[in-house]
Amino acid sequence: SGRTAEALSAQAGRLREWMTARPELRPADVGWSLAATRSAFEHRAVVLGTEREALLSGLHKVAAGGSAPEVVSGVARPDARVGLVFSGQGAQWAGMGRGLYAGSTVFAEMFDRVCGLLELELGTDVRLRDVILEGDGDAAELADQTLYAQAGLFAFSVALAAVLKAAGVVPDAVVGHSVGEVAAAHVAGVLSLSDACALVAARARLMQELPPGGAMAAINAAESAVVASLDEVSGEVAVAAVNGPESVVVSGAAEAVDAVVELWRGRGCRVRRLRVSHAFHSPAMDPVLDELRTVAEGLEFRRPEVMWAGALTGDLMPDPQAGYWPAQTRQAVRFADAVATLAAEGISVFLEVGPDGSLSSLGPDAVAAVEGAEPAFLPLQRRDDEGVLVGRRER
Question: What's the pTM value of the predicted model, to 2 decimals?
């Protein structure tokens, strides 16, 4: 890091010369010393790589003021406020977390702990850890089932949040998408780990036990227009998520969702059927709501220790209660409103705590109408990337 961009480039050049003259030094040791023992200025750069020559090449790019895929650079915000964004079902992929598990003791220990608690709640003989990490054969098929997808995402997200905590990242706020709200609530201090595991296990089990069927589709159109169009088709369809000003998901009976898809496709709008086993966040969830409420009423809820924007309404949640959880399972996910609320509260960096970056790509549009807000959205992982940590800025 440096006080100015020119100082940063000069330091990168000197560091490259110094490392070139000392081949006996391990890059990991040099990296640790740079991160832990030097003053941190606003102008910063990070060179990513596993081989010494790749790191030296990256330093050369920084020294020359150039850009490269292996170089992340920018100006830090000394007053930055950090929000954590927890992914929902659909973000999972076979083998997610394998690189983190192998490369981070913090991740592995928390992941194993959460998987153990979830297995006790689920009463299954299947090892959740193997389903998530193996990513092939029977495990790959199980990983996309609602039961294991929701439980796996929770275990992955809580373990990744532990990695952030160990690295000194203290969030000022949290938000979650669908099942991701359980992880958000735990990290915010609303639920203990054991209670959060009980809730996510019950939610996953009850939804898995519903008769299969139904459909969901994403439509690039405004919520008001999509809602109005639902009256033009017969059958039961509901808005399941509002992810941006023109990013809406509908859910319901397959024939009715197909009719909505064709209607919007005929208007020249981009539409996409989602690969789902059930019509989530629709009346199809009604049969499980009473039992889910009963489970939630047996848990202890505390006031959030950091800001938590609930995706049920998009507003801050000062005093969550048991009734929130059946409601957020049945009603639409108002992700865009929740993120906009946090941006209006001054959150300037959103870290996506999940196995993919889909929510980070939605973030900028969600906050576009918030005056004066230009937050950065950073996914910590990318689909099918087994690296320990990934971070790319989405603007």
Answer: 0.87
